[in-house]
User: Fold these one by one.
Assistant:
Number 1:
Amino acid sequence: MTEQSLWLGVGFLGQAMFSGRFLVQWLVSELKRESVVPLAFWWFSIAGGVTLLAYAIWRRDPVFITGQGFGLLVYFRNLMLIRTKAKAAALDAGAPE
């Protein structure tokens, strides 16, 4: 296997994970009969984004690197917001009325 073949595989794997997030979002939304963005969507976004960023760095593509880098910031921030909301809800649930 050549280095280029390996990196093409990494690129396609990243794209598959990145695209898989839409399949997850669609299936969950269909099950709930409303638009839902499940936690798995953000984890797929991160997994695909990191893999595609590695591929973009290998390709030395500044446009692709910038796009994936910024996207990763957004995905991590969304996970932080979800975590903060969950902690607040847990505290509220345990608070005496």
Note: The radius of gyration is 17 Å.
Number 2:
Amino acid sequence: MELIDGKYRLCGGIDPLELCRQYGTPLYVYDASIMERQYRRLISAFSYPKIRIHYACKALTNLAVLQFFQRLGTGLDCVSIQEVQLGLKAGFSPEEILYTPNFAALDEYAEAVRLGVRINIDAIPMLENWSLHYRDIPICIRINPHIKAGGHDNISVGHVDSKFGISIHQLPHVLRIVESQGLHVEGLHMHTGSDILDVDVFLRGAEILFEVARKFPDLQFIDLGSGFKVPYKPDDIETDVEELGLKLSQRFEAFCQEYGRKLKLILEPGKFLVSEAGYLFARCTLVKQTTSTVFVGLDTGFNHLIRPMFYGAYHRIVNVTEPNFKPRIYTVVGNMCETDTFAVDRRIPEVVEGDILAFFNAGAYGWMMASNYNSRPRPAEVFIYKGKAHLVRRRETLDDLLATQLPFEDW
């Protein structure tokens, strides 16, 4: 979204204020052209020919978005059987989907086997269970490399105390199970965290997986996860994916020569592909002056965008209605019966009741982490494709909140 002649415009010259009038607020809007730009940028950064991008769909599983990435040619990284089912419905073939759950029950794995998707195992007890039930089904193994990386403790998942993956120090145990039970390991996987800036973190992780890979002679792919940092502020820094692509392509090519054949290199970006493509629009319901603070209250809260409260995440906020007014200092808050502060002491063009404010970088983990807290419905979603806006999820209603509830009548 850009300022053009003093007014904010989305892709194709679409007026965001008109979308808010048509579909109401709060409103999520996604720009397909930015998603494609990010995908093309990542693909072009790698010279290694057998590169494969799997969209980490936990970031945003709207069916239209899944269908769009399927048409771009990505695979899919799924962390629940429901994501697998959505991916299949969106048109992904089973072999294009890698199912990587955490602490899922055996019956969920059984359903993944029935659906025919690729399966990633991240715990020794599940590996032992696998040999009892599905010995002939090939698997991928998720390794915890003991690398602490990520922009927040809640999104750092490769450290020594993480619940994710099998510790690199447990590799001898893994090898005993694989060899004694005759398991077929077709892939190795790791993921260290999110918002990782340092390219060397990925290269260190790759070296660890290369060492492990030498123990498995029949691999088809190595999956290095993702976690690329995207810019949140106008002058913010981001992961240099071009540098990563250059260095990792060279190193992966060299490893494959040592290994004896070219393996598929998989990356699993989620936020990198959709974060900058998304916006959350909300209406100012009240401007409230206290003794020391001017609050801008919105018709949304952490029930719709929890990242600032959960991760301390920064989201750029602009006044879409009056972008040229003189800036004032505001604390932007939501309408929850909790402390749901989006921003403190933020400089924004003067806001009055009824103005529409926009949150940038709302494409990843925005709607997906939304809830019905305070019994408020979740927002509608609009997908902009080839310069035209399409409603791809209607706003919830009270009937939706009641749809799964059963009346209690045994008084």
Note: The chain has two domains: 2-29+275-402, 32-272.
